[in-house]
Specification:
hpI Integrase, Chain A; 3 domains; three-stranded antiparallel beta sheet; disordered N terminus
């Protein structure tokens, strides 16, 4: 600082000596002045002398902000509070801008000069260092931002669905996603999942069935739509073209055997060494003619072995396409009378799983807390007798077999048959009948049907043992 003062005095003396030269002296003064000082864009003069650590450390606060220049636009800003901040002025695209480098002494003089040199190199390359700093800060913020995983978004979607869809639908939705989607996408950031990955998932799922593959792709698309709607993605990667990469889903018309085939089928079923609960599930569907989904959903709370009756609440079954009284459907429970054969079957199921604390009558293999898979029956039918019955008999086909046999027998009323199948009918007088009377008829009908199945083979064949 002393040397700087002496130099300033020298320049002033030179100014006096050459004053008689008029205009010439002004130019000379400008030359000498520029040796030690730099003229700023606002017309002020700052010292060209570099700062040192002692100068920075000794800088004292004043009533107002003041600056100590280090050259090249870099300066130390001293606040009245005593806080010392590094700043750098520069011009970019014709505009004056300011860059911040942090606080002294956290950022030392040596450090800040390195930062300033980095900024000057960017400027020399036509890059705005302030924008680079802003982009870096945004990248850091994005890096520490919680990951919006596919599973998290899916769970939010399911929570929203529960306001307008049944609990059963939501449970089936979750189960299919847990089985086919979450192993691949569950922990992934949803915005990073691309179209080609979804196509690959669809092709993999296609091995388990075309219809299933299309449904999985549809549900992944729903999750992606929800992500877009909630700002987690820019667009949905699932389109019509995604479905076009999978072969069309051609649903079979529920193939069913005829009564003449039943003895052979029962003999093959008796020899089948699959999961015992799945075998019981197939037999239950065959004996009661209930839907596969209803049998899979069956819980022990609905079963009353003493009353020989299963009572399925309205939320647990569907009534088919026909309606009573033009839409005025009677939403009463669905009753399944239990034949002696079904009671024996349920007691066997109870021995296998009922005492485990699980709620489902026909639980999943090695997981009694979860109901049987939707592919359990179709998978078993495809494997019985090395695939002999694949394409010839389906789970739903057991209902066709029973309905045909009931009708051909000629003893049972149309209303009793339709009620047992949980169908609604157009005839408004049906609902006026005493339901107990219809139930009595259905008790006799299902016992007759169980006896017919038993007669198609032998008691030894029908009575399956644990594999």
């Amino acid at each position: 600082m002393l040397a700087c003062s002496h130099t300033f005095l020298l320049v002033r003396i030179c100014s006096s000596v050459f004053s008689f030269y008029g205009g010439i002296s002004g130019g000379i003064i400008e030359i000498f002045w520029g040796i030690v000082y730099n003229k700023t864009p606002d017309g002020n003069w700052t010292s060209n002398m570099k700062l040192n650590d002692k100068m920075v450390q000794a800088a004292k606060p004043k009533d107002k902000d003041h600056k100590l220049a280090d050259g090249g636009g870099l300066f130390l800003l001293v606040r009245p509070s005593g806080v010392k901040l590094w700043r750098m002025k520069y011009r970019f695209a014709g505009k004056e801008k300011l860059l911040s480098f942090g606080e002294y002494p956290i950022v030392t003089l040596k450090d800040v000069r390195n930062y300033a040199n980095d900024a000057r190199r960017l400027l020399a390359g036509g890059i705005d260092p302030a924008q680079v700093k802003k982009d870096a800060a945004a990248a850091v913020k994005e890096a520490v931002k919680p990951v919006e995983t596919f599973k998290k978004v899916m769970n939010e979607l399911l929570d929203a669905k529960r306001n307008r869809a049944s609990e059963k639908h939501c449970d089936d939705y979750r189960r299919s996603m847990e089985l086919h989607v979450l192993p691949s996408f569950g922990s992934r950031d949803i915005k990073e999942i691309g179209a080609m990955e979804i196509i690959a998932l669809g092709k993999k799922t296609e091995e388990a069935g075309r219809y299933l593959a299309h449904r999985i792709i549809q549900r992944v698309g729903e999750v992606m739509d929800f992500a877009v709607a909630t700002g987690r993605r820019e667009q949905n990667p699932v389109t019509k073209m995604t479905h076009s990469t999978i072969a069309p889903a051609v649903r079979e018309n529920n193939p069913a055997i005829i009564m003449d085939d039943l003895p052979e089928f029962l003999r093959d079923l008796a020899k089948y060494r699959g999961y015992p609960i799945t075998i019981l599930l197939m037999r239950f569907i065959m004996l009661t003619a209930c839907r596969t989904g209803e049998a899979r959903d069956l819980v022990w709370d609905w079963v009353d072995l003493d009353k020989k009756l299963i009572t399925i609440p309205p939320s647990g079954y569907k009534t088919g396409k026909k309606k009573i009284n033009a839409g005025n459907v009677d939403v009463s429970p669905h009753f399944i009378p239990l034949s002696s054969q079904v009671i024996d079957l349920l007691r066997e199921a109870q021995e296998l799983t009922g005492n485990s604390g699980g709620k489902y009558v026909f639980p999943k293999y090695r997981n009694y807390a979860t109901k049987a898979s939707e592919n359990a029956v179709s998978g078993a039918l495809a494997n019985i007798a090395e695939g002999k019955w694949k394409g010839r008999q389906s789970g739903h086909g057991f209902r066709r077999l029973a309905r045909t046999a009931w009708s051909n027998h000629g003893e049972w009323s149309f209303e009793a048959m339709e009620r047992q199948l949980a169908h609604t009918v157009a005839n408004s007088t049906v609902t006026a009948y005493d339901k107990a009377e219809r139930l009595d008829e259905r008790v006799r009908m299902l016992q007759w049907w169980a006896d017919q199945i038993e007669a198609a083979g032998t008691a030894k064949i029908i009575q399956l043992k644990r594999a």
